[in-house]
Design goal:
single chain; about 325 residues; alpha/beta; eight-stranded mixed beta sheet; 9 helices; 14 strands
Length: about 325
């Protein structure tokens, strides 16, 4: 059995040796070499659309794709046969995305963006320094006692929550099903009308799907307090960007710190670039999967043994891969 691994990141391939497979590197921006099109396993990371389309049409023996992305929309839309098993890199980006989210929240509270703007202009942002009111009710200025709502409370949310709590924030989650996860109360989406008015910072970590498209729309934005900030590190399609720009420019919410967008790169004509109190991050929260080798090895071992794989998102288990 052949396994193709990408050269788009450094992998410790020694940890994948010892299985009944041969390991082969490939360029994620070029067509799959003819000598490798008979591979049964494909590991993907930062592949070009043309590379994936080529692989989908020519890798006729493929049985399993391990994407290192948390949301492998590129793989799912490339045209691979429906029977090809696809697993995600869910869990590989938890720490990096949680860290970036914390940075965006602190930037929003401490207004590092405005300080930088003043610095570039050679101005001293005196209004942001010196004596300041402590935890004013009409502004989001600190995580201490802040009411943070994490919409899309999964692995990343559970990684983020302890850091928020350590800084004094109150954390609640929203997911498809209610319950308690790692000590955090998680509510169903039906509770949003009651939760949003009690939120100082809304952190969105929703996946991209038809079910989540424009989940944060004009009606839900109006439920947020006027001082509340919106942070999005999930998928850009989860927010109605025009409605968000209207809310920002109209002073209906405190601000937004966004790492993901409907179109990326964000078009220069987007209203969000100049929207009031809007911080733009160029999809930088993830981008560096951590500890990919144990996940690949775990799934490879189970594939060979005919056992269910971890993080399956599409396809069917093969009957025999050897």
């Amino acid at each position: 059995m052949k396994l193709l691994y990408p050269t788009s990141l450094k992998l410790d391939t020694a940890s994948l040796e010892g299985f009944s497979v041969s390991l082969h590197a490939y360029d994620v921006k070029s067509p799959i070499p003819d000598s490798l099109t008979d591979a049964e396993v494909l590991i993907t990371w930062a592949n070009s659309a043309s590379n994936l389309k080529d692989a989908a049409s020519r890798m006729t023996k493929l049985v399993w794709i391990q994407s290192l992305a948390a949301g492998p929309n590129d793989v799912l839309s490339a045209g691979f046969p429906a029977h090809v098993l696809v697993t995600t890199g869910s869990g590989l980006h938890d720490r990096t995305v949680a860290e970036h989210t914390l940075g965006l929240l602190l930037s929003a509270a401490r207004r590092f963006d405005l300080m930088r703007d003043s610095q570039v202009q050679g101005k001293w942002a005196g209004h942001l320094g010196g004596p300041q009111p402590d935890r004013p009710a009409d502004r989001f200025t600190t995580l201490r006692d802040a009411r943070v709502l994490v919409w899309g409370y999964g692995n990343i949310g559970q990684t983020l929550a302890p850091h928020l709590r350590a800084l004094g924030a109150s954390v609640r989650g929203v997911a498809r099903s209610a319950g308690v996860r790692s000590g955090v109360e998680v509510y169903a989406e039906s509770s949003l009308p009651e939760l949003l008015p009690e939120t100082d910072a809304l952190v969105m970590i929703l996946p991209g799907s038809e079910d989540t498209k424009n989940a944060l729309n004009a009606a839900r934005l109006k439920l947020l307090p006027k001082h509340a900030w919106v942070v999005n590190v999930g998928r850009g399609t989860a927010i109605d960007e025009d409605a968000l720009a209207d809310a920002l420019d109209g002073g209906e919410i405190g601000g937004a710190a966004l790492d993901v967008f409907v179109k990326e790169p964000l078009p220069s004509e987007s209203r969000l670039y100049k929207a009031k109190n809007c911080i733009i991050s160029p999809h930088a929260a993830g981008g560096r999967p951590q500890d990919a080798e144990p996940l690949i090895a775990y799934n490879l071992r189970r594939l060979i043994a005919g056992q269910p794989l971890k993080n399956v998102i599409a396809g069917q288990p093969p009957k025999n891969v050897l």
